[in-house]
Structures are given as C-alpha cells and as structure tokens.
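Hi there, hope your week has been kind to you so far. For a while now I've been wondering how a particular protein folds. I'm sending you its amino acid sequence along with the backbone structure tokens. Could you read through the record and tell me how the tokens relate to the sequence? Take your time with it, there's no hurry, and the full record follows here.
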Amino acid sequence: MDRVSTTNSYNVVLSGILRAQQTQNEANTQLSTGKKATDLRGFSSDSQTLVAARTVKVQTESYIKLNENLSRKLDTQNIYLTATADAADTARQAIANAIANNSGNALMETLKLQFSAAVDSLNGQNEGQYLFAGSQTSTKPVNVTSMAGLPDPAIPLAIDAIFSNDSEVQTSRLNDATSVTTGMTASDIGKDLMTVFASIQTYFTTNSVPPNVAFGSTLTTAETTFLNTQMQAFASAHSGLTDRAALNGSIANGVATTITSQKARVDTIDSMTSDLSGINEAETVSRLRLAQQAVQAGAQVFLALKSSSLLNYLN
C-alpha cells in the first residue's frame, strides 16, 4: 500500500500556486508598462543591445538639440546677410536714379540711411551675442556709427580699423564625423561695402567747400563719372553679399537634412528597442489568464486536500 504524505502534497500545490502568482504578477506588470521587464536583468541576452541602442539615442538626441539651435542661428544670420545685401542694392539704385535724373538731391540722405541699415545688420545679434564678431561676441564688430565717421579708404588699413571682430569663425559639429564652418565675420562680409560708402563720403567731404556742396541739384560731369564707378562698386558688393547669403542658406539646408536624418535614426532606435523590450500584448494577456486559472485551480486543490486530511476524518 502506497503511503500518501499530506504535507508533501501541500508543498507541491503551494509551489504551483506561488509560481502561477509570480507569472500573474509579471504579466500584470508587463501589461501596465508595455515592456518585458523593468530592469536590464529581465532582458537576458538583449540587454547589451539595449544599452548600446540607448547610448546612441542619447548621443543622437544631443546632436539634434545642438543642430536645432544652430539652425535657428543660421536663419537669423540669413536675415542679417540679406538685409546687408539689400542695403547695398538700394544704395546702388539710389545712385542709378541720381544719374538718370542728373540730380543729387537727397542722394546723401538715402546713402546714409542704407549705411545705417548695413551697420545694424553687420552688428546683428543672436541670443545676445554679436553674430559676425568672431570670438569677440560681446563687442560690436563695426565700431563706426555714421558715414561721416568713415575714414579715407585710400589710407592703408583705414577701413580695417572700423571692424572690431577677430578672424576666428565658428565651426559646428553636426555629428561624430561631420564639422562645418558656420560663422562669418563682419570684416569679411562688409569690407567691400564699407569701402564704397567711405569712398563716397570722402568725395563728398572733399568736394563740399562752401558755398558749394557735392551732389547738388545738378550733377557735374565729374560727379556723374565718380557715381558711375561707385554704382558698379555697390553692384559688386551686393553680388558678394548675395553669395554669402547663398552659402549660409546652403549650410542651413545641410543642417536641416542632418536633423531630419538624426530624427529618423532616433525613430529607428525606438522601433528596434520597442521590438526588443516591448511585449506581445495578445500573448501576455493569454499568459495572464492561464496564470489566473492556475492560481484558482491550485486554490481549489489546496482546499480539497485540506478537507480530505486525516484530522478531518478523525474529527
């Protein structure tokens, strides 16, 4: 006759109930979090892949943030470059109109306005820092405030002296492998334009001897010849500034493409880690139901054992 151990039967049933409860708790946690586990130990062989993927994601998101800031800076830079180019073109058009009308009335006033517009743009700021100042971002790169303050461009290095920027330009890293020069300096951008304004101011000052004033109601032959030369110089300066703006735009487009690529990379990483760490909801629900049924069945067996114990028969 086989000897039945009630204690051993209890232990077997209780172990089964505990295992089913553990499976039930795990399934509940997975359904509430949407993940297979709450720490790396629960991912077994996939843990190293997940750690590497998360590291790449954090690094990529850091580049995205930096590049988005850079993109905004380049957009601001484009506004100032375009405004400087517009000032050069408006000054050229003012001279063309004066020559066409054979009159210099209001010419200097118009040129002074365009000079101020150009200086304001070259002294443009982004987030409180001067964009075109090189590394001297707290100092205005153009230190002259009026056409009357411009030096004679025939004097060596005279035009250079109106610029306070240094030659250092910003280089930005877009990712681990790519760096691009994104900075420009006021002296590189505006020297040609300021030279034209200075040439006109010097001519005006030299030829305005009371009671005569240069560029009066009727232009002289000499004035017309001089203004023709300066009109061409403004056109050349405008072309150079337009090229600078185009270069800036090209860099901005490259940064935008990089951001798009990096965001797609983050999405890919999220998808991959979701596949590794995420759950199969239908399978998890099925495991939960089976575990619940196992707990209920175990409880019923436990109660049956309790009711069939020797003590119950003796009682």
